[in-house]
Every structure is written in C-alpha cells, then in structure tokens.
Specification:
Alpha-Beta Plaits; five-stranded antiparallel sheet; 13 strands; alpha+beta; six-stranded antiparallel sheet
C-alpha cells in the first residue's frame, strides 16, 4: 500500500548558501536513479533554514532514505529517538484522504497542476484542541474537500501539503457518529494560530512556502 510522508530537514550554513545560489543540484537527475522508480511523487519546500517535504512511496521509511541519498550534503543531522537522521518525520495530525481508502489512489494520468506547502504556528496552549478538532473532522467528514490535503506537526509549527486541482471522491462512511466538527470552521480555527507578521494578508495564518523541487513518476 502507498505510504504518505511529511518530513523536515535542517539546512547547514553551506546548504543554505548553496541552495539559494544553485538550487538542489543533487536532484537534477533524480528521475534517472533507481530510487525514482519507488517514489510516486515528491516535493520539497523551503522555510528559511528548514526544508519541508512530501513523499509517496510503497516502501516503509522511504523519506529518510530519500533525504540521506540526496540532501545530506546540504543539511545537518537531526537528533531523534532513533539516532541522527537527515529527515525528521512529521506526525500526521490530519489527512483528508488516505490510500487505504482508495484502490486507485493516484492514476498515471493524475499529475497535479500545483503543489502547495504551507507553514503555520500554533499557540502552545491551543495545540491539543487543534489536534482534537482535526481528528474529529477527519473521522466525521472523511474526504470532504481534497483527499490530497495533509497536515504534519513539527513541535508547535505545522506543515500542510496539498495538490490542486482538488481531488474528491464519494466519501466513505464516517468513522465516528459524533458531531464535534464546528460548522464555522475558519472562525473556530483562527484563535489557535500565532499570526505571521511579514506575509501578505491572505497568508496571515498559513505562510505559503516556495517549492524548490517536485517529481511525479510517469
């Protein structure tokens, strides 16, 4: 079954300068490497000295292997419970769709026109409530707007990934019979965030990151 990964890597000083000047040179020939045949799609976004990524692969833990092979020269290892890693996995706190719910998750002709990676900051005291509401929505209203939308957590910073045009299908039965999803979703969500102060008004809460690289298996 296809696995979905959200991850982040920390740029070194050399990597920050190199990527700003030349981009990610090590990925220029990615599609010709053996690993490319095991990756359905992948994207990398940048937020200052952090790289955030999305990757789909049928292999367990493939985001770490991908980062080790192609990003180690640009990054510093991150300490995790499993030791030093080039990619830190972001726990999934929301997904609108899952490959487990769809026999044909991504067809060969299903190539996204736009990939969007966004970053937001949660107030520490609102983190658990934010996660609760998102779990409720995921369970009560599955596949309600874009099955390619996903949010992962990096402490109180959260990273979202989505593809456009939005893909929707006939939703599966709800996992829960509760009704805790707020009807005025945006109004309830806004107080959870620490606003960005240097981004455009439409990015007050979710800062859209530049996409440095993307790939889809053809």
């Amino acid at each position: 079954m296809m696995q979905r990964y959200l991850w982040c890597s920390h740029l070194s000083a050399r990597g920050t300068a190199h990527i700003a000047y030349e981009g990610i040179a090590s990925l220029a020939q990615f599609q010709t490497t053996p690993r490319a045949q095991h990756v359905a799609t992948a994207s990398i976004f940048r937020a200052q000295d952090w790289l955030y990524g999305y990757l789909e692969s049928p292999r367990e833990g493939d985001a770490e292997g991908f980062a080790t092979d192609f990003l180690a020269e640009y990054c510093t290892p991150i300490a995790t419970s499993l030791g030093q890693r080039w990619a830190f996995p972001l726990p999934d706190i929301f997904h609108d769709g899952s490959p487990a719910d769809d026999a044909q998750w991504r067809s060969p002709a299903d190539i996204p026109q736009q990939r969007i990676g966004s970053l937001a900051r949660l107030k520490p005291e609102t983190y658990s409530r934010y996660v609760f509401y998102h779990y409720q929505r995921q369970a009560e209203l599955p596949q309600s707007f874009n099955r390619r939308y996903m949010i992962g957590a990096h402490d109180t910073t959260i990273f979202s990934y989505q593809e456009l045009p939005a893909v929707t299908t006939a939703p599966p039965l709800p996992m829960l019979a509760t009704h805790n999803t707020p009807r005025d979703w945006q109004a309830v969500m806004e107080p959870h965030f620490v606003p960005w102060t240097t981004t455009p008004g439409d990015q007050q809460y979710w800062q859209v990151l530049p996409c440095l690289w993307s790939y889809t298996l053809s």
